[in-house]
Specification:
It is built from 17 helices and 18 strands. The strands form four sheets. A seven-stranded antiparallel β-sheet has the order 15-12-14-13-17-18-16. The chain has 538 residues and is an alpha+beta fold. It has helices at 2-43, 46-52, 61-67, 91-104, 156-166, 182-187, 195-198, 220-223, 225-230, 269-279, 312-322, 338-345, 380-390, 439-452, 483-494, 497-508, 531-537, and strands at 53-55, 84-86, 107-111, 128-132, 139-142, 147-151, 170-171, 205-211, 217-218, 241-248, 250-251, 256-264, 287-296, 299-308, 334-336, 366-374, 396-402, 425-433. The longest helix is centred in the N-terminal third of the chain and has 42 residues, at 2-43. It is 35% helix and 19% strand.
Length: 538
């Protein structure tokens, strides 16, 4: 009996300790959040602060918080929600939020569209303030000079719509999901149907405005070239709050042609996929191809979806030479404008451009994605194993996007995104579901397929993409995570650019105020270049 009591008491100690620590944490959190609110109100006129600050006792708190939660995995979790939500409509409001958060010692998260795959733009274990930028979404298009100033709270759909209202002959090479926020998308790199022709969204940034750790608004000249390099693909959240981007618009032809074909295993899907691996990287740069692999009725289907920046007559000779087995009759192709191709890629009606102004998705689900880069064709035996894993879940897909074209011409160190020449295609393993009870099973599936694919993808490091964030790669344990510890995930995203990012981080945010589970680490003393050395490397 005595032994049982000792065991029972031993088990009770951790529980009591958790309750005690949680109570202390909540008390400290409340004190800090009250101090933040007082500080913020002192920096912002009282008639404005009440419209900008949304506290937990406000009826608007939950609707505003959940509006841009794009992944339902992070809507109902035990992870604490923000102590308050700041909805700035002036740059000075962002400055005040940063100054006060730093002063009282509370973290911030910044959200533009809420599409972070792991929810890091609105989720944190530690107490935090959420800066939601949806009110900062002005767009100024200057067609004559081929530029646009876009605030970070705007979505890609709003940007594309604004461009189309000024001209049908200009576009911008960013992603295919219209509800994605401009702020995070471009700071992570960003690419879509135009990337083989023009490169990435971040390749076309001419200037930017950012609030730094001291609350200053900096542009390219005042921030310096080292920080300007870092935020174009290295993730803005590690360095400050991106307010806006100055973008170089790109010419698009008056006619874009789309073509989709689907094949089953019985119809030669495997042979077709093998052909695509051989030629995809060397397609003309006007060709964008997305290949979808998925299971249906116990069989694998392969869907090829082309978006080609040429007319039907221009593309027909190439298609006949490389895909003579396809039905290449004109009726199988659809010609449209660039803005209609944007709608087509997003599975919208091509006649309803107004839908691009809708900031919310038609439906939301739970999802998990993981990503690889393929540098050599996958063997038929390797594909067969992938097919068997895909058949385990009805909603599971593998999405392949061939590289090449302009991507091969841009240096790996031009911006922090390093995955350029030498990559045949990107492959994303993606699954979505509607019931939280399925979460463990479906997340486990992504880890299973990721483990299986290890022999067939890039190595040393195994590549990853920040805009398809994956916390399975590793996380920072705390604010003092070392460069070596963070390299577990950092080298996958940035390869040799990771050290340079850490050097920039150490210069501009030495106390690591802007941090999250995968933020760029600060280098320890003696392991960083001087300002002069870093400038010389640019």
């Amino acid at each position: 009996m005595q032994r049982e009591m000792e065991i029972s008491q031993a088990k009770l100690v951790p529980v009591l300790l958790f309750i005690l620590l949680n109570s202390v944490w909540c008390t400290t959190s409340n004190s800090i959040s009250e101090s933040f609110l007082q500080c913020f109100s002192s920096h912002v006129p009282s008639n404005s602060s009440s419209k900008i600050i949304i506290t937990k006792n406000s009826p608007a708190y939950y609707p505003v918080f959940q509006f841009s939660v794009q992944n339902l995995r992070f809507l109902h979790t035990p992870t604490p929600t923000p102590e308050a939500i700041i909805t700035p409509f002036k740059h000075s409001h962002v400055q005040a939020a940063v100054i006060c958060a730093k002063k009282v010692g509370i973290q911030i998260r910044t959200r533009s569209g809420g599409h972070d795959y792991e929810g890091l733009s609105y989720v944190s274990i530690a107490p935090f303030i959420l800066i939601d930028l949806f009110e900062l979404r002005s767009i100024d298009i200057d067609i004559e000079n081929e530029i646009a100033w876009v605030e970070s709270g705007a979505t890609l759909g709003e940007l594309y719509y604004a461009i189309s209202q000024k001209s049908e002959l200009y576009g911008f090479p960013a992603g295919t999901c219209p509800t994605v926020g401009v702020g995070g998308h471009i700071s992570g790199g960003g690419y879509g149907t135009l990337f083989r022709k023009y490169g990435m969204a971040a390749d076309h940034v001419l200037d930017a405005k950012i609030v730094d750790v001291n609350g200053r608004v900096l542009d390219r000249k005042s921030m310096g070239e080292e920080l300007f390099w870092a935020i174009r693909g290295g993730g803005g959240a590690s360095f400050g709050v991106i307010l806006s981007w100055k973008l170089r618009l790109v010419p698009v032809p008056p006619t874009v042609t789309v073509y989709t074909v689907t094949k089953t295993m019985e119809e030669g899907a495997t042979e077709l996929f093998s052909k695509c691996q051989a030629i995809a990287e060397w397609m003309p740069e006007e060709y964008f191809l997305r290949i979808m692999l998925g299971g249906s009725n116990g069989s694998i289907e392969t869907e090829l979806s082309f978006t080609i920046f040429q007319t039907y007559e221009e593309i027909l000779p190439w298609m006949k030479e490389n895909f003579p087995e396809f039905n290449l009759n004109r009726t199988e192709f659809t010609e449209m404008s660039w803005i209609q191709s944007v709608l087509y890629s997003a599975s919208y009606s091509i006649n309803d451009t107004e839908v691009l102004l809708n900031r919310s998705q038609e439906s939301r689900s739970f999802f998990k994605g993981k990503l690889d880069y393929v540098t050599e064709p996958i063997s038929e035996a390797g594909l067969e194993g992938l097919y068997q894993i895909l058949l385990q879940l009805d909603a599971a897909t593998a999405i392949l996007t061939p590289f090449g074209g302009k991507m091969n011409d841009i240096s790996e160190s031009e911006i922090p995104f390093p995955h350029r020449i030498g990559n045949l295609y990107e492959i994303q393993y993606f699954v979505s579901w509607d019931d939280d009870e399925e979460s463990e099973k479906d997340v486990s599936w992504t880890r299973l397929v990721y483990g299986y694919m290890a022999p067939y993808v890039s190595k040393s490091p195994r590549g990853a993409y920040l805009n398809c964030r994956d916390l399975d790669l590793g996380i920072n344990k705390d604010a003092n995570t070392s460069y070596a510890e963070a390299s577990i995930w950092g080298l996958s995203y940035f390869k040799n650019n990771f050290r340079r990012l850490a050097q920039v981080k150490t210069l501009v945010d030495p106390d690591n105020f802007f941090r999250n589970e995968q933020s760029i680490p600060v280098l320890r003393s003696g392991k960083m270049k001087s300002q002069q050395q870093l400038d010389a490397s640019l």
